[in-house]
Q: What sequence folds into this?
């Protein structure tokens, strides 16, 4: 009721005409991230491109979603969520309404053309379906772009034999509309998405150095990338991944480990099918595959992070026709910055660091500042008349099955082995945990290189020891020869006498 009354008051202030989300987001300090805007949504951030707070504005500019907090709604909900930015206060409704008066006055004072342009910007982003003719497609083979081969082998750490086996399932692509820069063609790797039973791609997963996205208009709800040599009715296992590069990395990891251990490979494209869901699994993808491959076993090979665990649960629910409902229950963390520290360089720096980590600010009457943050504490999970409470970091498929009676696991799970690998971030080499199959491929290559260096060092030490022993032996022999010569000379002098 409180939110409804707030909305009514804001509508009264605005005379029934609410400003667009883009207007308000701009007022809050958000800026468009052109690299992540699509035909369906406008991406806006506070912070550098590729980082910071991120919201998506969609439904012709009428709704938004905060990808960090998970909150969504209209322009009023956005002003409430970011109240500390909107009116520089938290839970101060008088300041909130006064800022709406001030903000709406700014909007009304805008020239008509500028205001209409801002209001209609999201509306004008009409969805345009994927256009196959827009893309120039070439096979990825011996004559492919050298830089793309280097990207796959050295950046993504896919071995040569795996590239040779899998190259028929992806291409090099060029966008004929925007694919030229300063007179040079921009060529990327494209993993084609197909709707089951169709021969024309309905989209692309696009990858290159420090670049990844789906092609504009791609149908990621029904289309998917897949790789198999078997007829669909004969497929025995379907392995689901979040991206095609993860699937190919899985093949590379499996091949090299089988070779190192002298065992047979786990994956066999004559009976297995690799599928990229282009993110999480969707109903259209899973239902179509289940019908086309009636004898197949589903295998979840998603990431090791929270999103990957949720994808396991979603896949299992769709595959087994089970329905569960989850309700996220948050925990509030607080940190008080005393009045005498608020305006000091240390206090301001501390507030800046906390804001980057997602904390919000509340100015207290006594002059101190309360920083607070909501984090998921647990999930309330319901299935029929059964309820379970699961800690936020334990919402995995096995934990869910153990906690919720009657919930069954109908799929298999295959995850990359945990560990760490080295990564260069802002010019510094840091150690990061393994999250997905490509991280595992990178880590395995680094381990092999480290092992090779150790072997070389061992060989070097062995050679040094061997050379030292040979030198000692030679010195011993030289000493023996010198003593023998002395004895012979002594005997010769004795004979002469």
A:
């Amino acid at each position: 009721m409180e939110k409804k009354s707030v909305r009514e008051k804001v509508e009264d202030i605005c005379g029934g005409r609410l400003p667009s989300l883009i207007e308000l987001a701009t007022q809050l300090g958000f800026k468009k991230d052109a690299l992540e805007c699509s035909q369906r949504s406008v991406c806006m951030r506070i912070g550098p491109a590729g980082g910071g707070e991120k919201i998506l504005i969609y439904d012709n500019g009428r709704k938004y979603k905060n990808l960090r907090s998970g909150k969504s709604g209209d322009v009023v909900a956005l002003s409430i969520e970011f109240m500390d930015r909107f009116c520089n206060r938290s839970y101060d409704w008088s300041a909130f309404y006064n800022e709406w008066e001030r903000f709406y006055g700014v909007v009304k004072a805008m020239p008509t053309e500028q205001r209409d342009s801002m209001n209609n910007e999201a509306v004008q982003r009409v969805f345009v379906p994927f256009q196959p003719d827009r893309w120039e497609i070439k096979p990825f083979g011996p004559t492919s772009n050298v830089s793309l081969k280097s990207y796959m082998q050295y950046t993504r750490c896919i071995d040569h034999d795996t590239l040779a086996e899998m190259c028929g399932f992806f291409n090099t692509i060029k966008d004929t509309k925007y694919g030229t820069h300063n007179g040079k063609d921009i060529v990327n790797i494209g993993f084609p998405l197909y709707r089951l039973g169709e021969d024309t791609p309905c989209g692309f997963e696009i990858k290159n150095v420090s670049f990844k996205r789906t092609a504009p208009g791609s149908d990621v709800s029904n289309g998917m990338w897949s790789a198999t040599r078997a007829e669909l009715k004969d497929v025995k296992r379907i392995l689901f991944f979040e991206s095609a590069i993860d699937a190919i990395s899985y093949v590379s990891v499996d091949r090299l480990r089988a070779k190192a251990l002298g065992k047979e490979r786990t994956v066999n494209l004559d009976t297995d099918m690799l599928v990229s869901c282009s993110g999480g699994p969707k109903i259209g993808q899973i239902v179509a595959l289940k019908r086309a491959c009636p004898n197949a076993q589903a295998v979840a090979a998603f990431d090791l992070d929270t999103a990957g665990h949720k994808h396991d649960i979603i896949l299992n629910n769709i595959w087994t026709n089970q329905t569960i409902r989850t309700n996220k229950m948050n925990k509030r963390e607080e940190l008080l910055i005393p009045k005498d520290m608020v305006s000091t360089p240390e206090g301001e720096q501390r507030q800046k660091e906390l804001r980057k980590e997602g904390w919000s600010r509340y100015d207290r009457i006594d002059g101190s500042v309360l920083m607070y943050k909501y984090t998921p504490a647990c999930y309330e999970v319901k299935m029929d008349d059964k309820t379970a409470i699961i800690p936020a970091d334990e919402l995995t498929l096995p934990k869910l099955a153990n906690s919720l009676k009657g919930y069954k696991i109908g799929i298999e799970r295959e995850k990359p082995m945990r560990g760490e690998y080295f990564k260069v971030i802002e010019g510094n080499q840091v150690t990061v945990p393994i999250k997905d199959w490509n991280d595992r491929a990178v880590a395995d290559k680094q381990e092999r290189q480290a092992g090779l260096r150790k072997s070389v060092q061992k060989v070097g030490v062995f050679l040094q020891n061997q050379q030292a022993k040979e030198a000692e032996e030679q010195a011993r022999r030289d000493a023996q020869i010198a003593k023998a010569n002395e004895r012979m000379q002594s005997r010769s002098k004795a004979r002469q006498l």
Notes: The first helix runs from residue 2 to 13.
